[in-house]
Structures are given as structure tokens and as C-alpha cells.
Amino acid sequence: MHPPYDRKERSIVNILIIEDDQQIRSFLSYILEKEGYHPEMAATGKEGLQLLKEKEFQLILLDLGLPDLDGMQVIEKVRAASNLPILVISARDQDHEKADALDLGADDYLTKPFSTTELLARIRTALRHAQNENKTQAALVKSVQGLTIDLDSHRVFVNEKEIHLTPLEFSLLACLFEQIGKVYTTQAILQKVYGTQYGSDTRALRTLMASLRRKIEPQPAKPRYILTEIGVGYRLNDHA
Question: Which is it for strands 86-90 and 108-111: parallel, antiparallel or unpaired?
């Protein structure tokens, strides 16, 4: 028996089964429970979408031939709201239908009939990919006491209010976020933000720092987030 998701993280893994065939629903639920997962079942697309609003899931097992909504519609609606992994389980075996489901945002496609071994392997793969993606996204979004930087979208927020920075201001803040709570020397910042050609000329950096502080600090004259370490450099305050 394989561990659900990750043996090190004893977290509950909720899996939503959207399948109109009662026998298949019961079979899938039995297999998942046996492996330590927590299944929830829906017989229609609308019922499944409602459950997604009410509870948190880590994976969807989706049949395409539903009595109300087509499974393709369910994929579109889920993708409009989240990146929740979707594993399609369907009797439709035409290549174009598989391609359509994947193009709409499904993560994988398993054709009925299937083996329990393959099903569980596909589930573990989908969950592992989602876990790795979540870790990557988390690493790109960093926060310190209400100051948040999204390194992927190049956005900055102070207490959830977006602050518009210039590219150089963003680079300076991103530089400081690399070593939260630690001093970044003036020379290191100059090279990181401007390049080696600036040498030891700190005037441009002081001007840039003043501009950044005016935008993110409640009181720029008494910085809360970016502290000056006289004679050394700057530090992003981890106890702001």
C-alpha cells in the first residue's frame, strides 16, 4: 500500500469524485479510503461544483458523461476559479476528446476500464505535482508584517493595498527580501540592482531608497520595513 500524498505530512487529503454511476462511485470511494484518502461523492456536475464551494479538496476525479453538465463544462468552471488537480476518468477514448479535456485544463486522463494500480499511481502523480507547484508559488510570494512581494507577477502590497513601484524600486525591494532580517551591504545592493558599473557610488542608491520608502513606509522618516545599518547597508526588518 502506498502512502497517500506524502507520508511525512500526515495531512488529510480530500478527493472529490464526480461520477453519475453509483457502482463506480462506490468502487472509487472504497479504493481511496483503503489508501487513506478522504473521498466525497457527487452524482452530478452541479452537485460537485457546490461541494467545491463548501469544502477544500486536493484532487477531483471527474467523469465526463454526467446527466446535467458535460464534464468538459465542469473542467472549465473549476479552472476559472482554481488550479485544483483534475483527473478525468471516462469511457470516452477518442484522442480528440482526451486532447480537448487536457486543453481545457484537466491534469490527466484515464480511460475506463482501468486498473486500481494505475489509478492510484495517477492520483499520486497529480498530488505530487500540485504539491510541488504550491511550494514554488509560495516561494515566489513573500511577506513581512503586511508588506508582501510577488516575485512572479512583480506586484507589491502593503496591508493588501497594491503599491505601484518602478522596475528599479521593485528590484531593490526584491533584493532585500532575499535576506529577510539580515544586512545587505551597500556594495552588494549596488551590484544586484544597478550592475557592477556603479562601483561604490551610493548616491543613486540613496535616492532610490528614499523613493521606495515614500511608497511603502507609513512614516518614511521613521522607517518600519527597511532599516539603515549605518556604514554597512540596509536590512528588511523581520519584526516590523
Answer: parallel
Question: Looking at the whole model, is its pTM more than 0.70?
Answer: no
> For residue 4, what is the DSSP state?
S
Through-space distance between the first and last CA atoms of the chain, rounded to whole angstroms: 48
pLDDT lower than 70: segments of the chain: 1-10, 134-138, 196-201, 240
DSSP one-letter code for 50: H
pLDDT, residue 135, reads 67
Residues 74 and 17: beta-carbon distance below 8 Å: no
Alpha helices in the chain (DSSP H): 22-34, 45-54, 71-79, 95-104, 116-140, 167-177, 186-193, 203-216
- Strands 233-236, 226-229: pairing kind: antiparallel
Torsions phi, psi of 191, nearest 5?
Answer: -70, -35
pLDDT of residue 170: 93
Give the domains, in start order, of the chain with CATH numbers: 14-139 (3.40.50.2300), 145-236 (1.10.10.10)
The C-alpha angle with vertex 171 and arms to 153 and 213, in degrees rounded to 5, equals: 105
